[in-house]
Amino acid sequence: MLNKEEQNLIEYFEKTLSCQSDTECNVLYRDNDNGLFIKQKKEEKKNNIEEISLRNPVYNTEKGEIKFLYYLINKTDYCSDLFRIYEFESFNFNGDGYYKLVMRCENHKHNFNFFENDSYRINFSVKENENIDKNLQLYISVKRDFIYVKNIDKLNFDKFNDYATNALLAYGFINGELSILGKGYYFEYDNIENLKNGKFCGFRYSENMVSCYKNSLKLYHGNPKITENAFEKMINTMINNHLFFNAIFSILVSNKIPKGIESACLYATVLESLTEFFQEQDKKDKQDENLDDKDLIDSIKKEFKDIFNKHQKEFKNKDTRDTILNNINNNILRISNSKKLVKPFENLNIILTEEDKKIIKKRNPLLHGSFKYKSDEFKKQIDENLCLNLSLDLFCNALIYKYLFGRDTKIELKNDTYKIYREF
What we know:
The protein is of the alpha+beta class. It has three domains: 4-88, no CATH class; 96-214, no CATH class; 247-423, no CATH class. Helices cover 42% and strands 24% of the residues. Strands 7, 8, 9, 10, 11, 12, 13 and 14 form an eight-stranded antiparallel sheet that branches. Helix 2 crosses helix 4. The radius of gyration is 28 Å and the shape is globular. 27% of the residues are buried. Mean pLDDT is 76; it is low at 17-56.
């Protein structure tokens, strides 16, 4: 929850900076070229600029009551009957501290049943080095029309912002939607007690927040049930693996753009990221298995090298020679690209039809700009775009949910907009 001063400060910014350049709001005018304007009656005009830069004075103007906080206003001057604000001061948070991110959300509904009193403590770990994991905690909560994320372990601000963003992305994806309205507000606190009491020592805002965390494919009737383990596994994986983070973020972005060739290409990058991610996981799982055949593999490599060494002076093209040597050393166990595409589905017990496999194999043409429509007719191209988008979205979500809940868990996915339902 927010204390009164935090609430007043957020309300002040909600009423002002959210307006467009040609629209009046309750207390400020905004002009993109000349900054922000507070219009006052002439008799209210102050002669000394310092009178307005004090903390917490309240001014009654024809636009309503205005409360100023001195550390927010950086550059100002008077022009006729206007008090002009050129720039708002923003604190640069440095060092370790306690922070809270607050954003307004709209028509929010929990699809989680383990949020107690609309609040949840997230346990996650980050690697400090190869051998040491650091266990940390964040709180995420929804109260009325606001969502909050705060840290209860001291963190560098940039890391807090990174972890909070990951938590919100994971929450929006697995919850189905989280509609954020505009800006993010950051509060800094000296200690854990002040964090609990809302006695902040620093404040900054950002207008560059992701506005919608939406996943169009929902778990149908909550099957499987969203668990704490699945939610925390998602956040942990996003924080510690950039490929998984890229996939989640790209799916959420793709839901904000029209279903055309651009969004199909974006889904193709999601599939690429997930394929590489699962290939990494597969390598970790298969390391011990490869040890069983290590002697045989080494023997085969040696035979290939002996043949290569016997003929290497005969090569006229150095690049060809180096490519063959590299393949002997590094790629002798490499699976084909088409097999690599479907292998994550096989490992996660996702059964694909032959038509599914054909669509998945269009990933590379979409990634490399060589995709060709089946027809030259525009209407048929639109239909093909829609089919590609919905299918790739479905396959990517199936991979993610199977990873979170386990290969033997039945997943039911539904897209309400296009009336799509499928079990995996």
